[in-house]
Amino acid sequence: MDPQTGLDARPRTGEMVARYEQMQQRIRDQLDAELGPFPWQVRSEGDRTGCGGEFADSGGVVVYLPRWGFEGGIPDADWPRAKQIVTEITAEYGFTTATLQIDRTGDHETSAADEALGAQYNFATQANTSIAVTTGCHLDDAPAG
Known about the structure:
The protein has one domain (about 5-135): 2-Layer Sandwich (TBP-like), CATH 3.30.2030.20. It is elongated, with a radius of gyration of 16 Å. Helix content is about 30%, strand content about 30%.
């Protein structure tokens, strides 16, 4: 399959952003219910870039969703449960390939990718805690007309 056909077959950007926003909300809610509550805030606004690699010059975009977080870390004793919550929820959304894993006293991080769509997330806690999600390459939603 040529790259453009593959891109055309993927869900549109709006659908993926909505799915990943829902995923982030579920993560925050579950972490709050079991280990918090935490003072979540948007720590950086989202962004968009063109696609690279096989989808360069395809007209597709990669979306960096707003990064959520809070000042302070999750205690070391709570990290295994926090990681389990994030891993279980993100797996439901296709993030099944573990990437960066750090597990040191006061410094924890877990990341995974959805290899089929090229999306990634990163959940980290140290002096501060954050979760960041990036979509894979998708075409923008068709303009209303």
